[in-house]
Amino acid sequence: MKSLLKRLSLLIHSIRFRLALMFVVILGMVILLFSGFVYTRQKSDLRAAAVTRLNAKVQRLAAVLRYSESDFFEHTPLRIPSDPNNQDALLQESDVLAFLNTDEEVIQSWGPLEAKYIPTLAGEALAAENGDRKLTTRLFSARLQTAEERENYVFMLAPITFERRFAGYYLIGSPVDPDRQLPRLLVSLGIGIFLTLALALVGGFWLADRAMRPVQQITDTARTIGETDLSRRLNLNRRDELGELADTFDDMLARLQAAFERQRQFTADASHELRTPLTIVDLETSRALAAHRPAQEYERALGVIKSENQFMIRLVNNLLTLARMDAGQVILQKEVVDLSDVALEVVERLAPIALKEQVRLSTGELPELPVLGDRQYLAQMLSNLVENGIKYSSGENRSVAVETGTRDGKTGREAWARVTDNGQGIPPDHLPHLFDRFYQVDKARTQQDRDEEPANGQASGSGLGLSIVQWIARAHGGEVQVTSEVGRGTTFEVRLPLEGNGSTG
Ligand code: ADP
After folding, report:
1. pLDDT tens-digit profile of 262-293?
2. Of the residues 272, 322, 388, 393, which should be mutated to test ligand 1's pocket, given the most ligand atoms within 8 Å of the CB?
3. Is the whole model's pTM more than 0.85, yes or no?
4. Which one of 400, 438, 440, 485 would you pick to mutate in the ligand 1 pocket, going by the greatest count of ligand atoms within 8 A of its CB?
């Protein structure tokens, strides 16, 4: 019982039901209007026909009546032929005919209306004419209570004159709808309306059900998509609005899946990156603790541990930075800063490392370049690039050059900063992935670097630096690009919109 009620309430609240109901209500209103129109049309047609009939009777009455003054006033019963089987007879059974004298008293009457009611009827008709124009013919309607029921009649009240002298009236009436057409029409319309609406309800529900079926399909599929199973798609393959909805839904699922996959990959890569240094630290400590060793051995082990620790600190810092960037938690404190100034500051800060690595770190012309940005993040961006330059420059005369300048870009004047090294370059097929997280061109080489130079805090990487560079450049409305030639070197160029008119550049 309860489940039946629940299903009933679900049905009543369903869009299908409401659509069908709305359909029926609107259709019902239209049909009612239409039926009303048909009914009133029929009613006025019937009245017009009754008036025509009445006129014919009046004319025939004049021909049939051979009344003389004495006949009329001496109350001699007039013989009015009444034949119910003859349509052409002057009077039918339901017709009313009466003669009245000048005082509106009934002299003779025929038909279903009792004589005592006739003066009232005639008096009302005459009163409506202000009682003055006694000699005009009047046409009026009235509802009569005949033996069976109340019926609408049309009447004609006309004066009788003898030798130009006003002698009285005659009243003739005929039912508007003698064949009872209107009640039959009403019944037919009622049955028709009921059947049409019932059919419309069923048909409307069926149509709405059909139209809403894909929604059910979407709901069902959406229900089966678990948290980790984002590979399912609706694949509705329809060209209508619901198809569009399903496609949008599928696109969203695809984006979610990609994001989910990236997240998963990111976590896996991060764990993987952390596993190596942790294993090294574990090995070194185990080895040092296994037996008594000379002091240099402990120093070396501590050196390795420190280096791995620094790597992990950098990695975790980078991961945190990226996570905050992803979460939109990084709020840039933008102000007008001179990009060249920032570049100079970065070069000065990294000069000792370059010296230690025997890399010639030089600057080109550094014109004033006002850009709107967060000084700290812009410095981090350039310093990642310069650090990479130092790291990946090679050969006898290792060198890294930092230059800045302006140019006309797509959206007006742009400031650019370039970091060029003379390293071994990057093969073209790696370039599209360079800014991906954890992407390293030569994983083995970078790993080896770290092992070989345990004390060098700058030597090792984990492939996050360029992702951060790209994020900072984009967050400032700019872009970073790379050009590289294998064996000759690599150039990274950052472009940022120039603040003001840029004439200083
Ligand atoms: P990493 O911490 O490994 O340097 P990055 O995101 O900064 O990570 O760089 C990604 C990869 O791009 C590096 O592993 C390296 O292979 C390559 N790369 C970056 N800068 C240079 C460069 N100046 N010359 C050659 N290769 C580079």
Report:
1. 888 888 988 988 999 999 999 999 999 998 88
2. 388
3. no
4. 440
